[in-house]
Amino acid sequence: MNRVQSLWGPVFAYMLVLFVGQMWPNVPELPGGITDKHEHFVFYGIFGVLALRALAKGQWRRMTIAAALGAIAYSSLYGVFLEFCQRLSPTRSYDVLDMVADTIGSAIGVGLAWAWSIIGRRSETPHAL
């Protein structure tokens, strides 16, 4: 497997999973007070991190602000695309708040990965005595 496939393969596979999941005709109710907004938040947080990994070329400790913003935009725009696709399904509904949850989830996922990379960089730097 070449480098591009190893970086972008998981992103495209996850996009397919999200597409199939969001186009499913009758989604069961979630247990215990979990709303679909929570679901969007978590799934798009993961998607943001996968996109960030691909845009940062797999180098977590060397990611840039451009890669982080690109990952948020990429995953959020895909969420918008899927919401518009849901308008074509008679059993699904279009919801602006789902798009908001997608964007917030993406931003927090990317932000956590960014923070983790900063912690990783600091732990690698030699400390002066």
Helix content: over 70%
Proportion of β residues?
under 5%
How many strand segments? 0
**Mean pLDDT score, rounded?**
87
Structural class from helices and strands? Answer: mainly alpha
Number of helical stretches of at least 4 residues = 4
Q: What is the 3D shape?
A: globular
Provide the gyration radius in Å. Answer: 17 Å
List the quaternary state of the chains: single chain
Q: Which stretches are low in confidence, meaning pLDDT under 50 for 5 or more residues running?
A: none
- Measured between the Cα atoms of the first and last residue, the distance is 45 Å
SSE string: HHHH
How would you sum up the major sheet?
none
The gist of it:
The protein is mainly alpha-helical. The protein contains four helices and no strands. It is 71% helix and 0% strand.
Describe the structure using short key phrases.
mainly alpha, 4 helices, single chain
Structure description:
- The protein contains four helices and no strands.
- The mean pLDDT is 87.
- Helix content is 71%, strand content 0%.
- It is mostly helical and 129 residues long.
